[in-house]
Design a protein that fits this description.
349 residues; 7 helices; alpha+beta; 20% helix; seven-stranded mixed sheet; disordered N terminus; 29% strand; globular; five-stranded mixed sheet
């Protein structure tokens, strides 16, 4: 089985040279906002009443099981445009309620057949939604996990309710040390200052990890509730749009030009695209302009994952993402966000 997976996972690229053809292995890393992946029972201490049979969503076993099936379908297909039958090595998730839903999600046939496992640490969010990480243990080995808390800094904020931290998972991908930081930054309604504070804390975390081991390849992903052009991402986290702009203390953001030049994104608001769902990386994961050195794991390309079934085809919301519920009506849909995928290559010896 391991041999079969290795063969399927290998993306064969050719270089026309007098010496020999080179072979590369490809690894997909994804992120997908699950939009309220709740079970239908109350968790003590959490404000999750709307996702119970008596709540505003009339959330019951039927709706829950359909939600699990739908999300598993998308998650299993992410990355398969390049890696058919294999998909993503790791997928960051936001808006998942607890271990119960993650156990049920990974038990779905579409995910179970690949053996996906998960990392989840319960956070302080008042509604109970957290970040998590799905991973294929055949492709990614978990070594260490921690939930770094989001901390308020101003005295006037000390009484604010606690919010989601930064799920940090260190492990081995393609035989190299890779750390994934999964985020769900404060909402648009909270104000830009709080997302800039999140960016400041994530940058400090990233810098400390690199200081401890400069070979650590760090990927920050999540629903940032900001676009690549906003201050939190572009200035505070210093996630740059162009490879040749990326200095030692910066990160590379391949989503910037997708929003600015292609004018598309991962969610819509009043008919306009935003691109809140991003995966950015440290300089040791990119080739400088003109270089094609894949002797170690390096960025290759990215995509917003799209399928026709993820969009409304009729009615008031035609052309928008097909949500689980819209306008108080259960649509048996997916999420208000589209998934994103980044592909990395490494030369096989």
């Amino acid at each position: 089985m391991r041999k079969l997976i290795a063969v399927v996972a290998a993306l064969l690229l050719t270089t026309m040279s007098a010496k020999a053809q080179k072979k590369f292995s490809c690894y997909a890393v994804g992120f997908y906002n699950q939009e309220n992946l709740f079970d239908y029972t109350h968790d003590e201490g959490k404000n999750d009443y709307e996702f119970t049979p008596q709540g505003s969503y009339k959330w019951d076993e039927l709706k829950y099981t359909h939600k699990l099936r739908n999300m598993a379908k998308v998650l299993s297909e992410m990355g398969t445009d390049v890696l058919p039958g294999v998909g993503c090595a790791v997928i960051g998730l936001s808006e998942v309620e607890n271990d119960h839903v993650l156990n049920d999600l990974t038990a779905q046939p579409a995910l179970a057949q690949r053996g996906y496992k998960y990392v989840h640490l319960e956070g302080p969010d008042a509604r109970g939604v957290d970040c998590a990480l799905l991973y294929n243990p055949k492709l990614f080995t978990v070594q260490d996990t921690t939930l770094v808390p989001y901390r308020y800094e101003r005295p006037e904020d000390m009484g604010r309710r606690a919010t989601r931290g930064f799920l940090t998972v260190r492990g081995q991908l393609a035989g190299e040390l890779v750390t994934l930081i999964v985020c769900h930054w404060p909402s648009r309604g909270a104000g830009s200052y709080y997302r800039e504070l999140a960016a400041k804390q994530v940058k400090a975390l990233k810098d400390s990890l690199l200081k401890a081991d400069a070979k650590n390849k760090i990927i920050v992903m999540g629903d940032m509730n900001d676009d690549p052009v906003n201050k939190s991402m572009h200035e505070v986290l210093s996630a740059k749009a162009e490879v040749d702009e990326v200095g030692p203390d910066d990160m590379y953001n391949p989503w910037y030009n997708i929003l600015v030049k292609q004018v598309t994104g991962t969610l819509q608001y009043h008919g306009a695209w935003n691109l809140f769902d991003q995966i950015v990386m440290t300089p040791n994961l990119i080739n400088q302009k003109g270089s094609k050195d894949y002797s170690t794991l390096k960025y290759w390309k990215n995509q917003i994952f799209r399928r026709d079934y993820l969009f409304q085809t009729s009615g008031l919301y035609k052309g928008n993402t097909k949500r689980t519920t819209a306008g108080g009506v259960w649509l048996d849909g997916y999420s208000d966000h589209l998934p994103v995928v980044v592909y990395f290559l490494k030369e096989t010896k």
